[in-house]
Amino acid sequence: MLFYFAFANSAQAYTSQEVKEPVEQKDDHWMQGLHETVSDSVYQSAQWFDSFFIANESEQQSPKTTAKISFAWLPKSRDWSEVKPRFRVRVKLPHFQDRVSVVLSDEADDELNNLPLESVNTKSRIEEEKFSLALNYTQDKRDDRLMNYRLGISGGDIFVRAKHKRRFNISTKQGFLFEPSLYYYLDEGLGAKLLLEYDYQLSKKSQFRINYSIRGSAEFSGIRWKHGFYKLHQINETTASVLSLQVEGERNGDRGFVIDKYTLGYRYRFNALRDWLFFEIEPFVEFPEEENYSTTPGIALRIEGFFHKG
Questions:
Q1: Are 198 and 171 in contact (CB under 8 A)?
Q2: Domains in the chain, ordered, with CATH?
Q3: Which of 169, 253, 284, 302 meets the CB 3.0–4.6 Å disulfide criterion with 280?
């Protein structure tokens, strides 16, 4: 599998490989200590949570835990102060045949608002950030399909979500993804989203991708949509890049058809120092409607750490 698929889900790409014991070096032993401390802390919490579902402690099995912690600085011409710390913890519970997992995150709206490869989203404000705790159940998971359900709380609002994912191989170079989802929030009401994706393999190390999503909800009028055009390239085993153009807006709302923003960016991602540590540099240019589509350049600098055990 090419390294650039880590852009879509770095945690899965990291944990899907065999985890090797890193060689401790004198000059960076503190980094390994940090990794072990965070991994052990998440793992112990998972064991404590999983123990509620067994009658005898002798039946205790080992859960699988994955945590992602990232820090991003997104300075741009009109705002140089935006810093985004992020975390996401996923715990698979062995007493449910790994079909059930607990997801703890501060990126609650990521799946609803963003495209899979979208990384620069400077529209969000601090008061819109939501903390999420959810129970995720996977009913049917295969290489070409997925069906799961999620029940949880986000920003003080209880929600339930159902998502179906189906992938079709048109040919050896072309693929298509169909992903509808239905969700309901007690405060915001019923909503639905449809994500479509087309992939074309240009070469062994290069791919062209188109994403399109539409979303409707009782929370707002009209339909919100996003287009994404991407050129993915694997530079070497530890480095990849994505050239992107995204357009987003709404239609059938109070203002009719409107384009909210254009975003052009180049994302450079590499793995360094440790196999669990990733760095990103992403210069971008925005053309937001609220600024009369004037040019707004910026750059995103990120550090991501992945912590896995079990």
A1: no
A2: 3-309 (2.40.160.40)
A3: 302
Q: Is there a contact between 165 and 179 (Cβ–Cβ < 8 Å)? A: yes
pLDDT at residue 294, rounded to an integer: 93
Q: Is 195 exposed, middle or buried (0-12, 13-18, 19+ CB in 10 A)?
A: buried
Phi first, then psi: give them for residue 7, nearest 5 degrees: -65, -35
Amino acid, single-letter form, for residue 266:
Y
Residue 191 makes CB contacts below 8 A (sequence gap 6+) with 112, 182, 183, 184, 185, 215, 216, 217, 218, 219
Q: Between 267 and 132, where is the model more confident?
A: 267
pTM: 0.79
Helix (H) or strand (E) holding 30: helix 29-50
Q: Please report, for residues 73, 113, 152, 177, 281, the alpha-carbon distance to residue 124 in angstroms, rounded to integers and kept in the order given.
A: 14, 10, 22, 27, 20
Q: How far apart are CA 223 and CA 133, in angstroms?
A: 27
Please give the pLDDT value at position 15: 37
